[in-house]
UniProtKB/TrEMBL annotation:
Organism from which the protein derives: Thalassospira lucentensis
Family that this chain belongs to: Belongs to the short-chain dehydrogenases/reductases (SDR) family.
The protein's name: Short-chain dehydrogenase
Keyword Plastid attributed: no
Record keywords: Oxidoreductase
Lineage: Bacteria, Pseudomonadati, Pseudomonadota, Alphaproteobacteria, Rhodospirillales
Record carries keyword Oxidoreductase: yes
MF terms (GO), sorted A to Z: oxidoreductase activity
Length: 268
C-alpha cells in the first residue's frame, strides 16, 4: 500500500478526527489536519495543521488551496468535523438546527466542493464522510443530529454516483457510541419543555452510560483508515455494536428494532 498519500482530515482538535490524523501519520501518509483556531490547537506529531472553519466557505477554499500549494495534490479527504445536540425535537430552535446542519452537512459540502476540482484533475481520490449509526437509526432526543447524519448518508451515496467516472469514490463510516469529549459534554437545547423532562433525563443518563463504556476513538480511526485506503465499500461500521446495529437494521423487522432502540435509551 503506498505510504505517500496526501490525506486531509477535518476537525482534528479532539476525538475521532484527532485519532484518525494520528493513525494516518503513523502509517506514513502526509497528513494535513484542520482546526478552527490554529493558535489554540495542540500540535500532533506528523500532522501539519491548517486553520479552516468548515462553516466558512472562504476559509475552506483558502485552506484547501494552502494544502495544494504545499503538497500539489489531495488523495484522501476525511470529513470528520462535527457537532451534536441533545434535546427533544420540539425543544430545538430553528437557529440551533441551522447551526448543527451548517457544520455536519454544509461543512461537508463546502469541503467536497473545494477538493473535487483537484481530484478530478488528477483522476483519483477518496472521500470518507463520518456519519453515525444514527444515519440509519433514529435516536430519541437527538432528532436534529440524527437528521443531519441521515442527510450525510444521502449526500454521500449520491455523490459517489456522480464522481466515480473521474476515479473518485465516496465512503461512509458509521460509528456507534464512542468515548469522546464531544459525546461526554454534548450541548443541550437552550429551551426546554417540562412535559419532556422525565424521558429526556432518562435518555441523557442512558447516553452518558453508553458513552463512558464505549470504545476509544482509535478503533473508529482504524475503520476510517481502511475505508480510505482499502477496497472501496460504501458503508463501513467499526467492529462491535455499530456492526451489529447495521445488520439488525438491514435484516430485522421494524418492530423489534424499534423496541430495541427504546430499551437502549431507557424508554418504556
Amino acid at each position: 500500500m503506498p505510504n505517500s498519500k496526501v490525506v486531509v482530515v477535518t476537525g482534528v482538535s479532539s476525538g475521532i478526527g484527532r485519532a484518525t490524523a494520528i493513525k494516518f501519520a503513523q502509517m506514513g501518509c502526509r497528513v494535513f489536519g484542520t482546526v478552527r483556531n490554529i493558535e489554540k490547537a495542540q500540535s500532533i506529531e506528523g500532522v501539519e495543521l491548517i486553520e479552516m472553519d468548515v462553516r466558512d466557505e472562504t476559509a475552506v477554499q483558502n485552506g484547501v488551496q494552502a494544502i495544494i500549494a504545499q503538497a500539489n495534490r489531495i488523495d484522501v479527504v476525511i470529513n470528520s468535523a462535527g457537532v451534536t445536540l441533545l434535546g427533544a425535537t420540539e425543544e430545538t430552535s430553528i437557529a440551533e438546527a441551522q447551526s448543527l446542519f451548517d457544520t455536519n452537512v454544509f461543512g461537508i459540502l463546502r469541503v467536497v466542493k473545494a477538493v473535487l476540482p483537484y481530484m478530478r484533475e488528477q483522476g483519483s481520490g477518496r472521500i470518507v464522510n463520518i456519519s453515525s449509526v444514527l444515519g440509519f437509526l433514529p435516536a430519541p432526543y437527538m432528532g436534529l443530529y440524527s437528521a443531519s447524519k441521515h442527510a450525510v448518508e444521502g449526500l454521500s451515496e449520491t455523490l459517489d454516483h456522480e464522481v466515480r467516472k473521474f476515479g473518485i469514490r465516496v465512503s461512509l463510516v458509521e460509528p456507534s457510541f464512542t468515548k469522546t469529549n464531544m459525546d461526554i459534554n454534548a450541548p443541550q437545547t437552550a429551551s426546554t419543555i417540562s412535559t419532556y423532562d422525565k424521558d429526556r433525563n432518562t435518555v441523557f443518563e442512558a447516553i452518558q452510560k453508553n458513552v463512558h463504556k464505549a470504545p476509544e476513538p482509535d478503533e473508529v480511526a482504524t475503520t476510517i483508515f481502511n475505508a480510505a485506503l482499502g477496497t472501496w465499500r460504501m458503508r463501513r461500521t467499526p467492529k462491535g455494536e455499530a456492526s451489529l446495529l447495521s445488520k439488525l437494521r438491514r435484516f430485522m423487522p421494524f418492530g423489534p428494532v424499534d423496541s430495541g432502540i427504546r430499551k437502549t435509551f431507557g424508554l418504556s
